[in-house]
């Protein structure tokens, strides 16, 4: 089913390109390991099974990790009401709604498709935002589901684990394989580590580039759907300012979910850090929303 969220062909092209390139990189990586080690079939099967499990149960894994639980309309009537309106407006299935008992103001959506998605907000976000601002954030997260980039990011993020697992398997199979005194073994391990480092770097850069663009695409689609870019911009400013006052220890706990959050838990606005961040800078997002307000003839 196609939703009324504004389609983004550039996002689609980028997602297909990233998955294709990552697939090529990892196929080549596995092929190289098979050639070097003669057999890595078992670990490939295990990793493939883990990938399927993460893709299939990504929503449950995320809720567990974020200490979140699903809530009913009776428990959170205002939150459910906003989600209901946005789903009706965008003509998409309503996701399950969850709340995380964290003071960190944030939100995320996950799930393998629109019919198996979950939308989660923290109590910190609910306390800090006005209804219009919250609607903008929820529309942003729903657009991720509509654009299917949630599933793509889930798969692409997991692929980064593949190199590490395969290298660890290769290292220990060689280390304890009875050839510890063979000089060729040391050279072989050096080659494997070098190749895996290259694979990790390529995967990291591809995933970060896709992640930054998808956030801009979600901002634009959400603002177009609600017709109020200024509310989303206000939410961005408010959430970013609030995060700066959250204890660093709490932020580091949630940092592993940065790629899925509305705004990053920890964010360095320096030029170099921005190149490797999961999200565009706050100023870039605000500028894009301001430009959209101008295009729509609205006050920015």
Structural class: alpha+beta
User: Order of strands side by side in the largest beta sheet?
Assistant: 1-2-4-3
Spans of at least 5 consecutive residues with low confidence: none
Termini distance?
Answer: 33 Å
Helix % is 55-70%
Protein name: Protease HtpX homolog
Keywords: Cell membrane, Hydrolase, Membrane, Metal-binding, Metalloprotease, Protease, Stress response, Transmembrane, Transmembrane helix, Zinc
GO molecular function: metalloendopeptidase activity; zinc ion binding
EC number: 3.4.24.-
Write the layout of secondary structure elements.
Layout: H1 9-37, H2 41-65, E1 68-70, H3 77-90, E2 96-100, E3 107-111, E4 117-122, H4 123-128, H5 131-147, H6 149-175, H7 183-226, H8 229-243, H9 248-254, H10 271-275, H11 282-295
Parallel strand pairs: 2-4
Antiparallel strand pairs: 1-2, 3-4
Q: What structural keywords apply?
A:
6% strand, 300 residues, four-stranded mixed β-sheet, single chain, alpha+beta, 11 helices, elongated
What does this molecule look like?
This protein has 300 residues and is α+β, with helices and mostly antiparallel strands. It has one domain (9-295). The chain has 11 helices and 4 strands; from the N terminus they run ααβαβββαααααααα. The chain has helices at residues 9-37, 41-65, 77-90, 123-128, 131-147, 149-175, 183-226, 229-243, 248-254, 271-275, 282-295; strands at residues 68-70, 96-100, 107-111, 117-122. Strands 1-2-4-3 form a 4-stranded mixed β-sheet, sandwiched between helices. Strand 3 and strand 4 form a beta hairpin. Helix 2 crosses helix 6. It is elongated. The relative contact order is 0.14. The model has no long low-confidence stretch (mean pLDDT 80).
